[in-house]
Amino acid sequence: MNVKENVLEGLRSIKGNLLRTVLTALIISLGITSLVGILTAIDGIQSSVDNSFSGLGANSFDIRNRPAMQVRREGQKEKRFKNIDYRQAIHYKSLFSTKGKVSLKTNVNFNAIAKFASKKTNPNTRVLGIDENFMELKGYKVGAGRNFSPNEQLNAINVCILGVDVIDQLYEKESPIGSEIIVSGIKLKVIGVLEKKGNMMGGGDDRVVVVPLETGRKMAVGRNLTFDITTSSAKINNLDDFMEEARGAMRKVRMDPIGMEDSFSIDRSDSMAKSFESITGSLRIGGFVIGFITLLGAAIALMNIMMVSVSERTREIGIRKSLGATPGRILQQFLIEAIVICLLGGIGGIMFAIPIGNLIAQAISSGSASFIIPWLWMTTGIIICILVGLFSGIYPAFKASKMDPVEALRYE
């Protein structure tokens, strides 16, 4: 009996015990679904993060306020740093504008309400004041309408560009371009619509009203705004050296004393993506462990099924041996049968895992994740199915191969 005949015999045996086989394969399928599904979801979430940071460029970094709150220890006073104000941000931009592109941004309001006709947004809309370089350096794109003109930037014209979440709340079928909305008591003309960006925290990058930087300062009259600075250069090969140069310029702008720590923070734009990548590595290990535990239970169940199958087919084994089947062929037959059951369950599990994993990724990343076909995890799942089949079938198959043919023929 060759391998092909053993495979066919295994399929016939499976067909003869269809209900038992389906239940066993279903256990394997659930294990593979959990394993491949979790890993697919993690890859999808990672793709969302990569998409979010893909437009930032490799040679960019952010300068922000240093966190003011520090833990008080043994009577030490809490250290506070002054915010980066408009004068300092403009001074830094003038120093570095010849070496690369510098963008300024300020959060005018975190909980604004935008109104159009009788509709209004939830009180969680962000109002951003941006300069002419912000869109390019931060990966925002205008999907309809246009960007701010130099005149609008310079003269604080009351115009705005809306995120898709704001549009969904204010408009039904009409185009927002050319309409006027009211934000914080100021009337703004809509000149553009941002493409959907998505955000790992629930779409916050799409829940924005973007205005020119000077317009944002006008809207926040009487309040002290803080400014974030992004610097980028396509000609710099060593970003670390460039960042140190920028650090020195910012210390000069902030008048930080020599020998004292920075009064601001400076970070690469892709640092969050790199941090999340290390987190997803740990999540993959956790997902693999969960899937492995599920498959271990399935392997034990399959081993039990194969033991029952050997007992039920004792006379069949005796007949095969009396007709010349060697112990090796009997061993091969039952091993192939166990592997075939695992492969059937594994293929079904993979078919369920791909859509489930992608749906989870889309839900967590607010629809910004790419659709993933996890070829690596699919291949890994198939290999694991074969290993589970070998693990589950080796003892029952060995037991069957060692049966005495005379005693097996006497079995009732």
From TrEMBL:
Localization? Cell membrane
- The reply on keyword Nuclease is no
Spell out where the chain crosses the membrane. Answer: 21-42, 285-310, 330-354, 374-395
Taken from the UniProt entry, a GO cellular component term is:
plasma membrane
Identify the main location. membrane
Give the PANTHER family listed for this entry.
Answer: ABC TRANSPORTER PERMEASE YTRF, MEMBRANE COMPONENT OF TRANSPORTER-RELATED
Q: What is this protein called?
A: FtsX-like permease family protein
Source lineage: Bacteria, Pseudomonadati, Bacteroidota, Cytophagia, Cytophagales
